[in-house]
Design brief:
The structure holds three protein chains of three kinds.
Chain A lengths: L3 E5 H11 L4 E4 L6 H10 L6 E4 L3 H13 L4 E5 L1 H17 L3 E7 L15 H5 L10 E3 L4 H18 L2 E7 H5 L1 E5 L25 E2 L6 H21 L3 E4 L6 E4 L2 H16 L4 E6 L1 E3 L3 H9 L5 E6 L4 H10 L5 E5 L8 H9 L3
Parallel strand pairs in A: 2-3, 2-4, 4-5, 5-7, 6-7, 11-12, 11-14, 14-15
Antiparallel strand pairs in A: 1-8, 6-13, 10-12
Helix pairs in contact in A: 1-2, 1-6, 3-4, 9-12, 10-11
Chain B lengths: L26 H16 L5 E5 L14 E4 L5 H11 L4 E7 H7 L1 H10 L4 E6 L2 E2 L5 E2 L18 H4 L5 H5 L5 E8 L3 H19 L4 E7 L3 H4 L3 H15 L3 E5 H6 L1
Parallel strand pairs in B: 1-2, 1-3, 3-4, 4-8, 7-8
Antiparallel strand pairs in B: 5-6, 7-9
Helix pairs in contact in B: 1-7, 3-4
Chain C lengths: L2 E8 L4 H14 L3 E6 L9 E9 L11 E6 L2 H7 L3 E10 L13 E5 L1 H7 L7 H12 L5 H11 L8 H14 L4
Parallel strand pairs in C: 1-4, 4-5, 5-6
Antiparallel strand pairs in C: 1-3, 2-3
Helix pairs in contact in C: 1-5, 3-4, 4-6, 5-6
The chains are: A alpha/beta, B alpha/beta, C alpha/beta.
């Protein structure tokens, strides 16, 4: 059993990154995620990772590009407006196939917005975000424990597919404290023959570029990337279900709202409403097949997507329900967290 | 080699035997060669990593036989920082034009210099956006005509041409700054020396080296290569004088 | 058994650390815990609060709307949270700061002059929050006193360890304020 601590989600993320063999962190302070860089700065003397507080998120993501290209196990964390600034870099990292880990501790938007928790960056995370045809694996932790676990998993998936991975969390999970069992440190043995580390006599030079000036070449690159995304869709779908076996109403929720909805399921069941919870853990690849299966079940009457946004994931749920059942939505946004009672009364309004 | 003949000039092995895409007379070709000559001379091919910019030299990796990364427009200094910090014993250089280094990438340039990042900037300043067809750059001379300043750069609205070498020389952790050119054989030899000195400083972990090249753009300037050399001598160098602006190594010797 | 609690007051009154110490103590006893703070500008000048849940089972929602226990240390917090204590639940209020007393009759109310006691009896207003915590421990045996002392030691930086005896005194004083649990 690993070490048990009471930690904030942001701190657990930082500690897990160290234990996963972090070699470089490049970031810029922004609420509500600054605890990550603060934690790593405090721990830095004990380890030999590189830590740079960059001049901007734009610089940070490009330091990632350099350090990741040089073969490092690297990470950055930010919050919504900062992640918007990083999008150009994300697109470059995907195209040059540089593995790295991003965490977006989402706050309410649009614009400068609020520093309170939100899930308003779902579209940005799952539908591209930057320019060009691409996807990233998006993990949505819903507890401090998963902030640590998904950090480990994120690094592994990044290396496995030679691609950036995103942890989409929110301000509340970043700021809240829970008991966390920390994974044991794992020595990191990189195998990155493509990295730009200096060209020995016995190999061709390594070039990392996302420039393919001839359309034929650019199409080939795209076909290669799409094949990789297909593999991710095949292998990396993750989800969790709670009391769905006989459920008549399926709540779909991710991250923090999945925790709140779980309570709503229990409370609702006490009063005789047969509720169940479907929680995508990977927001991309989205658990399409299972949603369709649930929609096909006779006893299921409707779906309701509960989110801290204006219904962004609801669109993915609807796409995969194929019109078989109604899909409703309940959400708060702008930094407001819905309560289990609010969720229940929203459900009751559709009965 | 035929008896009685002596080989006095050849292409460095570190420069690939390829026809370059650069316009006739452009200093990029010369600077590529000088860089790779130094890499060969110092025998550091196996530990050199370069960064190409967005601009005419975006394809520099097609010619230089070293590991390279292609950076987003303006971000070469951040990319170089990332590489050098991960691999402190490698020789890292960013190769950037004026639009890249002094417009869109000013923040990254200045902050890398302020941190004293231990890599070499090769700053090709030709006073124009060459690749996109000759638009005004932050370094375009006053009253110089470009496609976006068809009546000449108006300093009242566009400001004066930026003197990047002078600016970065003010940072305490910048170790070595020199402005060079390739407009005469003597200056070309000086440029080569400057590159070599900066790489040597890098090996000694001295901090940032910044080499500005007063360069040309016959196509963008709409003149012949020979005329471009005259323009450098008569117009560019009076505003952008050549020479060492800062050399903390030399001061140490004193 | 799930206990859902809210701690609220002005920033600087030690509400967040009260919740942290309780959560830490419960974790040390092998319980499941969650601690959800308000953060950001809300904390400056306004009210700071944290929701602490402690349970033998994994905790589903760290956010709840109604609480088994409310601890309020200033007037705005009382106004905000009085109505959100569950029927039959407990509301502890600090009676030096709060002038308008709570009015509910379907919950147990405990008025503690913790600021006054900390100032006059212990000569350090900062341990006011530990007096309140002591009273809570007596009212609800959520965790053992020993676990709280362990938590304090872990939470306080080494340079403040000379304050541990004073904190324990404050906890004892608070426990003594509750006559019949």
């Amino acid at each position: 059993m690993g070490e048990i601590r009471l930690m904030k989600g942001n701190e657990a993320l930082g500690e897990a990154a160290i234990r996963a063999g972090l070699q470089g962190y490049f970031g810029y302070p922004i609420t509500p995620q600054s605890e990550v860089i603060e934690y790593l700065a405090k721990e830095e003397p004990k380890y030999d990772y590189v830590l740079i507080q960059a001049e901007s998120e734009v610089a940070a993501v490009n330091m990632m590009y350099g350090a990741g290209g040089a073969g490092g196990r690297i990470m950055t964390t930010t919050s919504s407006p900062g992640f918007s600034l990083m999008q150009e870099g994300v697109s470059y990292l995907v195209c040059t196939e540089i593995p790295c880990l991003f965490a977006n501790i989402v706050r309410g938007g649009p614009g400068l917005g609020t520093i309170q928790a939100s899930q308003g960056d779902y579209f940005q995370a799952t539908k591209g975000g930057g320019h060009g045809d691409y996807n990233m694996i998006v993990l949505a932790p819903n507890s401090v424990q998963e902030m640590a676990d998904h950090t480990f998993l994120g690094f592994e998936l990044a290396d496995k597919y030679r691609s950036p991975v995103l942890l989409l969390s929110d301000g509340s999970i970043g700021q809240m404290m829970e008991k966390v069992e920390l994974p044991d440190p794992k020595p990191y043995k990189p195998n990155k023959p493509w990295a730009t580390v200096g060209k020995p006599k016995n190999r061709e030079r390594n070039i990392l570029t996302s420039l393919y000036i001839l359309s034929d070449d650019m199409e080939k690159k795209n076909i290669h990337l799409q094949a990789k995304f297909e593999k991710m869709e095949k292998n990396e779908v993750r989800f969790e279900e709670y009391r769905t076996e006989d459920a008549e109403i399926i709540i779909t929720a991710f991250g923090l709202t999945s925790r709140i909805s779980k309570k709503a399921v229990d409370v609702g069941r006490e009063s005789g409403i047969k509720l169940g919870l479907f929680r995508p853990i990977t927001l991309w690849p989205f658990p399409k097949k299972r949603i369709e299966e649930l929609a096909s079940k006779k006893e299921v009457k409707f779906f309701i997507s509960v989110e801290m946004n204006a219904g962004q994931m609801k669109e993915d749920v609807m796409l995969n329900v194929y019109g078989k059942k109604p899909v409703y939505f309940f959400g708060r946004f702008g930094g407001i967290i819905p309560t289990p009672e609010e969720i229940l009364s929203a459900i009751k309004s559709h009965l | 080699m035929k008896e009685g003949y002596e080989l006095i000039y050849k292409r460095p092995k570190t420069l690939l035997d390829k026809r370059m895409h650069y316009c006739p007379g452009c200093f990029h070709s010369t600077m590529h060669k000088l860089l790779m000559e130094v890499v060969e001379e110092l025998d550091i091919q196996d530990r050199t990593v370069g960064i190409c910019p967005v601009g005419c030299s975006v394809f520099a990796y097609d010619y230089m036989d070293v590991d390279m990364q292609e950076a987003a427009h303006g971000r070469a200094a951040a990319v170089a920082t990332g590489i050098k910090r991960m691999l402190p014993d490698r020789i890292v250089f960013s190769y950037q034009g004026d639009g890249d280094l002094a417009a869109i990438g000013t923040a990254e340039t200045l902050h890398a210099c302020n941190r004293g990042e231990n890599f070499t900037f090769i700053f090709i300043n030709n006073g124009i956006y060459g690749m996109t067809g000759g638009q005004m750059a932050p370094t375009t001379l006053e009253n110089q005509k470009t496609s976006t300043s068809p009546y000449g750069r108006n300093s009242a609205t566009a400001g004066m041409p930026m003197k990047m070498a002078e600016i970065v020389a003010t940072f305490e952790k910048v170790y070595y700054v020199e402005r060079v050119s390739c407009n005469t054989p003597a200056n070309t030899r000086k440029a080569r020396k400057a590159i070599k000195k900066s790489f040597e400083y890098q090996m000694q972990s001295r901090g940032t080296s910044f080499i500005e090249v007063a360069s040309n753009c016959p196509s963008g300037w709409k003149c012949t290569p020979i005329e471009s050399l005259d323009w450098i001598k008569d117009q560019v160098l009076p505003y952008y004088p050549l020479g060492v602006l800062k050399d903390l190594g030399k001061e140490e010797v004193k | 058994m799930l206990q859902e609690m809210i701690f609220a007051g002005f920033g600087g009154q030690g509400v967040l650390s009260m919740g942290t110490i309780l959560a830490y103590a419960a974790m040390k006893e092998g319980k499941e815990v969650s601690w959800m703070p308000s953060y950001g500008p809300e904390m400056r000048g306004g009210t700071a609060n944290c929701i602490v849940n402690i349970s033998d089972q994994p905790i589903s929602s760290p956010v709840v709307n109604e609480y088994d226990v409310g601890v309020v240390l200033n007037q705005p917090s009382l106004k905000k949270f009085e109505s959100r204590v569950k029927k039959g639940g407990i509301l502890i209020w600090e009676s030096t700061n709060i002038k308008d007393a709570p009015k509910r009759t379907d919950i147990q109310l405990y008025a503690l002059p913790a600021v006054e006691l900390a100032t006059n009896k212990l000569k350090n207003v900062k341990v006011m929050n530990m007096i309140v915590l002591g009273a809570l421990l007596k009212l609800k045996q959520i965790v053992k006193k020993e676990s709280v002392l362990t938590a304090l030691k872990a939470a306080l930086p080494e340079r403040h360890h000379h304050l541990l005896p004073l904190n324990e005194k404050a906890i004892n004083l608070g426990m003594g304020l509750i006559k019949s649990p």
